[in-house]
Amino acid sequence: MAFGTLHGNTGKAARLMADELKALGETVTLIDLARDDMALAVAEAFRFDKLVLACPTYDGNFFPKMEDFLLHLKAKAFQKRKVALIENGSWAPMAAKGMKAYLEQMKDIAVCDTVVTIKSTVSEANKAQIKALAQELVG
Question: Model's pTM, two decimal places?
Fold first, then answer.
């Protein structure tokens, strides 16, 4: 699971998703793209057949560290994976749209139908959506 966070709220959502996946028996590695080494993030993405991307909206697009991560995955021919998306944005969340556009350029990437959209902080409704997204990713 790779995430970017500006004020900690997207990181909180990523940790909640990690907990849900662990409860379903999945092995999870959390990578904070703003703090962890990019080479490690890319290597970890290739270790698993599923990937979760959690990202805030940033200047009408998505967090630059996430874009850098996706460019690295594309350059390394990342493929044949199932991906779940979590976005965060107070006014006009756009992160999922941007991430999905990058993923569509990769071969055999299945993006989950469910997208969790957080408006600043994680709500009780978001927690239920995260649970549903975890089940969709594993199922």
Answer: 0.96
